[in-house]
Amino acid sequence: MKKTVCLLSAVFCITVLDAQQFSTKSQETVEQTVVKMFDALSSRDSVGLKVFSTADITLFEYGQIWNMDTLILKAITQNKATDFKRTNNFEFISTTLDKATAWLTYRLHSVIIRDGKKVTMQWLETAILVRVKRQWKIKHLHSTLISRS
């Protein structure tokens, strides 16, 4: 009986550990580029947005195609709320990379406070990053809104 319990416990532990996805250092570096870009967005920092994005970035938002100018206009220039605060939480689903290109899929959960109102939003997003002078930069970002409350 003890052998059976030990064997079942070992199989369970192996299954649970195998199901967890651990990121490599390279994957974490790519993932942090996405996090930092959203940190810049949250702090309304257009210079920071440009640091973590290519000059020709394309963003697919709400059925529209945006470039960096559109992102800055909608997220920074038109965002005049003095009480604006945005916090982001990421759940990385898949991160694949080679020497010059990375593909990420993640869930983004954001809490946004603007004009005294709190909104919680969730997206499913895919990002494609490229290496530019030894630094990862976001080239394409596709966002699908899952929920807004």
Overview of this structure, please?
The protein is an alpha+beta fold and 149 residues long. The protein has a single domain (25-148), classed as Roll (Nuclear Transport Factor 2, Chain: A), CATH 3.10.450.50. The protein is built from four helices and six strands; from the N terminus they run αααββαββββ. It has helices spanning 2-19, 25-42, 46-51, 68-77; strands at residues 53-61, 64-66, 85-97, 101-114, 117-132, 135-148. It has a six-stranded mixed beta sheet. Strand 5 and strand 6 (135-148) form a beta hairpin. The protein is globular, with a radius of gyration of 19 Å. It starts with a helix and ends with a strand. Residues 4-8 and 10-20 have low confidence and may be disordered.
What is the topological layout?
Layout: H1 2-19, H2 25-42, H3 46-51, E1 53-61, E2 64-66, H4 68-77, E3 85-97, E4 101-114, E5 117-132, E6 135-148
Parallel strand pairs: 1-6
Antiparallel strand pairs: 1-2, 3-4, 4-5, 5-6
Count of helical stretches: 4
Low-pLDDT regions: 4-8, 10-20
Share of helix among residues? Answer: 25-40%
CATH architecture: Roll
> How is the biggest beta sheet arranged?
6 strands, mixed
The secondary-structure class comes to alpha+beta
| Proportion of residues in extended strands | over 45%
Distance between the termini: 52 Å
CATH topology tier name: Nuclear Transport Factor 2, Chain: A
- Following the backbone from N to C, one meets helices and strands in this order, namely HHHEEHEEEE
What is the CATH first-level class name? Alpha Beta
Overall mean pLDDT: 89
Q: Total number of β-strand segments? A: 6
Number of domains: 1
- Shape, please? globular
Task: Provide the spatial order of strands within the biggest beta sheet.
Answer: 2-1-6-5-4-3
> What is the radius of gyration?
19 Å
